[in-house]
Structures are given as structure tokens and as C-alpha cells.
Write a structure and sequence with these properties.
Elements (H helix, E strand, L loop, with lengths): L3 E6 L6 H16 L3 E6 L23 H11 L1 E5 H6 L11 E4 L1 H8 L4 E5 L1
Parallel strand pairs: 1-2, 1-5, 2-3, 3-4
Amino acid sequence: MAKKLVIKVTAGADAPERCSQAFTVAAVAVASGVEVSLWLTGESSWFALPGRAAEFELPHAAPLPELLASILAGGSITLCTQCAKRREITEKDVLEGVRIAGAQVFVSEAVQDDVQALVY
């Protein structure tokens, strides 16, 4: 089993099932004791901002704010640098615990031994 799971989520409200699946897998992995690094890119970038997860709705899915909180409590969440810039999001805007980093950091995390990477 992988010791670390790196998940890149590109979907937001534009593809709610895919988005919810990524956050659910990340939260379940954290609860299972797996080291998790969740990357927010594309439309999921908005969930790095306070209150945005509460606006997300998907019937029969776990509430996104709860999933986000559990991931932050036991894993890490990173907002893509380019995605943040395109949306004029800065480090002072994001939730506490969310970092902004670029592709070099993603690649260095994803290519380590004992790492499984998933893209949603």
C-alpha cells in the first residue's frame, strides 16, 4: 500500500460528482492513516477560499466543508500557483493551512517512492 496519496482535483461546481469523489477519497484516506496531499487546480481552486465549500451542493454526498476540514486536520492542501494567479487569489485570501505552490512541488511529491497519485 502507498505510504502517501497525492490527489489533484481539477473539478469544482462544474463537475460536482468528480469533485466530491476527490474530496471523499482524500478524507477517507486521511481517516485511514494515509498521508494525503490534496492539490486544488482549475475550478476546485475556489475551495481554498473561506466559505466556498459551503456553497457546494451534491445530493447524497458528504458535505464538502466537513471533508475539507478533515483533510486539513490530517493532511495537506495545496492551491496551484497558476490557478491562484488566474483567479487573483493570494496567500492572505486562503483558508488557514492551505499553501500555494507550483508544478515543481507537485512533481516532487508525486514521484517519490511509495506514492500513489490520482487526478480527478
